[in-house]
Amino acid sequence: MVQKLIEQIGGEEVLRALVERFYDIVEETEAGAQIVKLHKRGHGMDHARIEQFNFLSGFMGGRRYYEEKHGHMDVKLMHAHVPITEEDAENWLRCMDQALAELKLEGPHVERLRQVFRRVALMLVNDLAEWGETRATA
Description:
The protein contains eight helices and two strands, in the order ααααααααββ. With 138 residues, the protein is mostly helical. The protein starts with a helix and ends with a strand.
């Protein structure tokens, strides 16, 4: 039987530690400054920590807390109103890479996770200038 990714990284306890360390890094580093700003325009950092755990649990094959609460797991829909640049996506990935490294999460399953995170982060890049407003083109 193939282990779910959440089990491969050590279960919900390790996932919670990853999310907490990720958001600590986001709040402590220059790379995270814009991410903090975006979250503060939304529901705030505490909310982000909770919902990130809820989403990633289901995303990694564990209990689908986010779907139980919100009725879906559509990451594009979750971020549709948020202006996200390629730089924002790269900074998110930088912070997550640092959190994974600090928690010493490694191996083929973590490399696969990094690839999926990259694909999803870049998929969320959009042309919104402000919340719901399209950027003007020259």
